[in-house]
Amino acid sequence: MSEWEALNKQIIACHRCPRLQQYCAEVAARKRAAYRQWDYWGKPVPNFGTPEAELLIVGLAPAAHGANRTGRMFTGDRSGDLLYRVLYQTGFASQPHASHRDDGLMLSRTAITAVVHCAPPENRPTKEEIAACRPFLERTVDLLPRLRGVVALGRIAFQECVRLFRRQGWLLKMERPRFAHGVLLHRPPAPFLLASYHPSQQNTFTGRLTAEMFQDIFSCAYRLLQ
Q: If 116 and its partner were Cys, which of 125, 173, 186, 219 is the partner (CB 3.0–4.6 Å)?
């Protein structure tokens, strides 16, 4: 077993946050009417991709009826619909849709993880839950020898990535970057950090994040990898 596979097994087996564990199990048992025939995943969702990735995408947490149902990051919800369509358009994914773990989707040059690997109630993990999951993000980055950039989806993911970059020595401790869509932090030869609004329904329905804006983020990431 590779270190990457071992890390994913550790993520899946994690019991550090009883509130999240209980919530994921309850959602999996209750289900949504449209998914009555599904056998929900109902536990921590592992990283998606391989340790050969040059780009790491960091989201907030699995959606209750998305990745908590399908067992794969950003798979089975509206956020993932936009993410994978844009990843396909920008050359990072083999197909523009993601419906379940065995749908044939493959990532190219990228991997996807999250700040928290369990679905939180109302999409709001506590500070303690974020801290409990932080070692998984740190270990994920440690296992990416070819990493050249990170895209953080949303304010919390950006804040955690800033903390991570400081830990790695890729960002000066005195720097206090503020989150905004399109913010780019890059000190070669260190990996870059690129911020985006999260592709949540709230952001896309209100027009805060458009498909064009989101595609621009990953087009920028693609150029930076060249």
A: 125
pLDDT at residue number 174: 80
The H or E element containing residue 58 is strand 55-59
CA distance readout (Å), 33 to 5, 29, 134, 202, 205: 33, 12, 33, 22, 23
| Distant-in-sequence, close-in-space partners of 113: CB < 8 Å, separation ≥ 6 | 47, 48, 56, 57, 58, 59, 73, 136, 137, 140
Please state the domain extents for the chain: 3-225
CA atoms of 21 and 15, how far apart (whole Å) = 7
Residues 54, 100, 151: CA angle, nearest 5 degrees? 25
The reported pLDDT for the residue numbered 142 is 98
Does 14 score more than 90 pLDDT? yes
pLDDT value of position 173: 79
C-alpha torsion angle, residues 57, 22, 68, 143 (rounded to 10): 30
Structure tokens at 134: 């932080």
- Could you tell me which CATH class the domain 3-225 is placed in? alpha beta
Q: Is 75 left (phi over 0), alpha (psi -120 to 50) or beta?
A: beta
Q: Which residue has the tokens 């970057």?
A: 177
Q: What is the pLDDT of residues 30-54, one digit of tens each?
A: 999 999 999 999 999 999 999 999 9
